[in-house]
Design brief:
Layout lengths: L3 E6 L9 E7 L6 E2 L4 E6 L3 E6 L4 E5 L6 E3 L3 E6 L22 H15 L13 E3 L1 H10 L17 H13 L13 H10 L38 E3 L16 H16 L2 E9 L1 H13 L10 H15 L5 E4 L2 E4 L5 E3 L1 E3 L2 E3 L2 E2 L7 H17 L12 E5 L18 E5 L3 E7 L2 E15 L5 H16 L7
Parallel strand pairs: 1-9, 14-18, 18-19
Antiparallel strand pairs: 1-8, 2-4, 2-7, 3-6, 4-5, 5-10, 6-8, 11-21, 12-13, 14-17, 15-16, 19-21, 20-21
Helix pairs in contact: 2-3, 2-4, 7-8, 7-9
């Protein structure tokens, strides 16, 4: 059991999640659980996930299964042995108390008074147990922070994740011993490094000021074993296995509801325009056929035609940064990293996995990542953090025989590139028709940020890269 009274909060899965539904509590009320045990099944707009216990204790839910709540809402408590369930205000009561005691109220009042004086101690129960949110515990654990050293600024002096982040910021600004330098790294990266057994002192950061990014951990990640490594929390794509029939009503909930809201908002909030552009693929087809022969017995994955397009799209963004941007209230922000999202169709909708720093990756690595991410998305085991952070998106309907379409921009981006089907074309040379291999690119862009001519120049750059695809291999 833990000596910290732990709130069970509805977790935020990914940056875009606003609310979630408790599909089921996986352990009965009052049951003892250990840290890491699955507590509940959470349904979000993108994925279903088993939420694990942040600490040991006896579970006391405060909302029933089937309840939909915003991210961060209190849904239960993990209580110490013999501790009574919370009173209606949510304050844990000490063992042996039969009604709402004045001591907890006094303790919270004292904490509030301390906050008014500018020196807020972390809130504790009358038994001396520390009050901290699960997310604060997660961030502190990943960063190696002792929560007793952190000031609480949450309700009644409770420690929240922002308090831990502030503690880390203050620690990073303080002089550190030469033997233990403070690494410029986020708590998320620190946690991932701990999970993968990576010593951050041996990692070179590629971010601003030498900051270590999540992608910097990939080269030193241990080689994958034949069996996939289980994620910290099993994730599955929400699936509707029943085929729709005439007369059915398909509710706009879950993934379908999220797609509906985001796409409608995208068209309402942006000035979207689409260019169509035909590109020659003869050289790409020839090079890919050659690679299939040369790499047949090797360890390098053979890139698909879409992998060539992903690499070309990413490289072209280096020359045309206006397309790798986001529009905010104060203006158009050109983004540092080129993080390429690519659409993957799944039952009930689509997901957009993200390849980070795609322009800096060789083509075989893009092929490996796109294959792994697409397979994980279709199998329903993709991690939610792999669906966040795209700065530009590529979507293809070529496999369905579609030549040209008007893709809708992913909110937060200013452009999306659609890829049509590979087909035969004709080039006239000395009055003789020659067969060519072509496809049509459909670039939708936000006219608030990008004009027609720069968008056309981007497409021309992509086409030039595909005409000489050897440059895409590195």
């Amino acid at each position: 059991m833990t000596d910290v009274a732990v709130e069970v909060l509805l977790p935020k899965i990914g940056l875009t999640m606003q609310e979630g539904t408790i599909d089921a509590w996986l352990v009965p009320t009052g049951a003892a659980v250990a840290e890491g045990d699955a507590l509940l099944r959470l349904a979000t707009d993108k994925v279903d996930v088993d939420v694990e216990a942040e600490a040991g204790g006896r579970l006391h839910p405060v909302v029933p299964a089937g309840t939909t709540l915003p991210a961060g809402a209190l849904i239960g408590w993990l209580l110490a042995e013999g501790e009574q369930p919370p009173d209606p205000t949510g304050t844990p009561m000490p063992a042996g108390s039969g009604s709402t005691a004045t001591a907890p109220t006094a303790a919270l009042d004292a904490a509030a008074a301390g906050s008014a004086l500018g020196d807020t101690p972390a809130a504790r129960t009358p038994g001396g147990r520390l009050l901290a949110s699960p997310n604060a515990r997660r961030v502190a654990s990943g960063a190696g922070v002792d929560l007793t050293a952190v000031r609480g600024t949450g309700p009644g002096g409770r420690i929240v994740s922002e308090d831990v982040e502030e503690f880390l910021t203050e620690a990073a600004s303080a002089p550190a011993p030469a033997s233990a330098p403070v690494l410029p790294v986020s708590p998320l990266v620190r946690r991932l490094a701990k999970e993968r057994g990576i010593d951050l002192a041996e990692v070179t950061g590629t971010g601003p000021g030498g900051r270590i990014r999540r992608s910097d951990l990939d080269p030193v990640t241990p080689a994958p074993t034949p069996a996939p490594t289980p994620a910290p929390a099993p994730v599955s794509v929400r699936r509707n296995t029943a085929a729709p029939r005439p007369g059915d009503v398909l509710p706009l909930t879950g993934m379908r509801g999220t797609i509906a809201r985001r796409m409608h908002a995208s068209l309402q909030e942006m000035a979207q325009l689409t260019h169509g552009y035909e590109v020659r693929m003869d050289a790409v087809v020839t090079l890919r056929d050659r690679l299939k022969e040369e790499w047949a017995d090797g360890d390098l994955p053979v890139p698909s035609l879409n992998d060539f397009l992903l690499k070309a799209a990413a490289l072209a963004l280096r020359e045309h940064p206006l397309l790798n941007a986001t529009v905010r209230e104060d203006g158009v922000h050109l983004l540092d990293g080129i993080h390429l999202g690519f659409a993957v169709a799944v039952p009930g909708g689509l997901l957009v996995p993200v390849i980070e720093d795609a322009a800096a990756l060789p083509l075989p690595e893009i092929a490996r990542r796109s294959k792994e991410l697409a397979l994980a998305a279709r199998d329903g085991r993709i991690s939610p953090d792999r669906l966040e952070g795209a700065t530009f998106t590529v979507t293809s309907l070529g496999g369905y025989g579609v030549d040209f379409f008007t893709p809708v921009i992913n909110p937060g981006n200013v452009a999306i590139l659609g890829v049509g089907a590979l087909r035969d074309g004709v080039e006239w040379r000395d009055d003789r028709p020659l067969r060519t291999r072509v496809l049509t690119l459909s670039l939708t862009f936000d006219h608030r940020a990008v004009d027609g001519a720069p968008a056309a120049e981007y497409l021309r750059t992509v086409g030039e890269l595909l005409r000489k695809p050897l440059r895409l291999l590195v």
